[in-house]
Amino acid sequence: MNLKELYQEIILDHGKNPRNLRKTDNFNKDAKGHNPLCGDKVHVYLKLNENKKVEDISFEGQGCAISMASASIMTGLVKGKEEKEVKEIIKDFLEMIKEKESLNSKLLEEDEKTKLMCLSGVKQYPMRVKCATLSWHTLISAIDKSQNEINIESEEI
Known about the structure:
Elements: H1 3-16, E1 29-35, E2 40-48, E3 54-62, H2 65-78, H3 83-98, H4 110-117, H5 126-144, E4 149-151
Parallel strand pairs: 1-4
Antiparallel strand pairs: 1-2, 2-3
Helix pairs in contact: 1-2, 2-5, 3-5
């Protein structure tokens, strides 16, 4: 299996069977995101403990396979990480999806990087970049509680 096939398989798997698709019990941070251009919607629920570590994270929503796969992969990768680590991973992912060739984060294992890299192909399709980054921008908003709802159309990509 070549890399492109592996990436497609990961996106299809996470798109059809998203992980953490539910509402977190006793969440203490949340945010909604919307991509009006294609109709993707996501609501991220986050439970941070007193040490600002992600005890639980989940999402609800609907959208294309890329949007759902990205949210699924994201929730799996940040669970158990500290808030500052999560922000570093988000920054690295957003840079990779826009312009960089690879991920630089030392906080991720190789298999985790592979899951994120499977989304890198969307950089060739600017409209799909918004699908892939919606949940990530929404997670930033949940952490910082900067907005009630992210409108990805107005986010810089």
